[in-house]
Predict the 3D structure of the following.
Amino acid sequence: MILKWVYRGAVVMETRTEAVDLVGDDAAINLARAALFAALVGAFAYVSFPFPFSPAPVTLQVLGVFLAGILLGPVWGGVALSFYLVAGALGAPVFSGGSAGLGTLLAEPTLGYLWSYPIAAALVGGIVHRGTTLRNPREIGVATLVGAMVAGTVVIYTFGVIGMAVVLSLTLPEAFLQGAVVFLPAEAAKIVAAIGILRSDAIAAA
Amino acid sequence: MTLSYVPDDTLAHRLDPRSKLLFQVGFAAAAYAYTTPRGLVVLTAVAAAVLGLAGGGPRSLWSYRFALPFLLVAPLVAGATLGDPWFRTDRAFETSLASYRVLLVLAVAAAYVRSTPVRDSRAAIQRTVPGRAGVVLGVGVALVFRFLPLLTHDLRTTREAIAARGGDRLPVHVRMRLVATAGINRAFERADRLGVALSARCFAWNPTLPPLAFGRLDGVVLAVSVGLLVVAVV
């Protein structure tokens, strides 16, 4: 409804009163957690570890993808990584090396890895929680966790290698050689680190 | 130097974010369809003009330097063959063109990032994606922009603290665990405080957005974008 404030025949002020449709408390917390996790995955792009045999420093982004699925579940984990991609496309410096822009998702050699993140997070979450209802991560067996993260890794590298082959006009074996072989050992270290995080009592809010 | 929004009054700054986004898609489609020497010459001129109109220059591409190793190594990987003739120049040339194409699309993307404030991008999302999905996406993206510097700072102080305690000598997976644990705990603490604060301040599904309007210039950009898409597909 629009209220018009009239003084001596002239409209001096107009106010709009619309019903405010409030977001529920649970949705607000879930939304905040997903957004903060997306920002954390972006911040992980700035944390690099030198790794033996790897030509480029290894960042923790894939670890963030695994943990988004495990800690937020398949739905909000996938949403979190979608936030990450859209924010990056619109200019948040969250892609590797602090880069940003829609061009990264349209033409950069590593675009396949990025597009796979929401799918991989949802897959890891779906396997670990066996559906959309969240289970306590401490009650989940190590075999399930490792299996889910290996499945996530397969999805990420499948998308990544195909993307690199398309962008750089390479054959799939060439793209695998350039974009996957040297990085796979680091993924094993991230899976070990993820298990360590989930098995300790270090995560207060899980 | 990180690529980010720079306040200015260039032609690109006055455009609606939605036309700029569509233009990037059109440009990328044309770049994939015309990865020939002649096509790339034309597209180079377009990309340079677009970046110039946004007030940017070659320096704007510096934040994409991490893609360079991939772009430079790819032609070598493509050209190398096992057995005679050991190196195929035709394959290497094809991949060199593809590598160069990447730089052009990134230049156009840099022009968008330089010329578009976050709140306009957010308004573009919420006016394009319908219903609550659009609201969730808009809020989420705005929060990522807001909290990225804080979480980056959290992680940096954590690493410094680990290094100060001699943690550099620990195995890689242990260091990864320590950094990630601290990062997640900080992120969840911030998220829970934020969630409560949002509820307390009447966080609503129908917030007020800055106005966006298509001008005459947007009509031109939209027509060019659609033209590029048509040229790419046909």
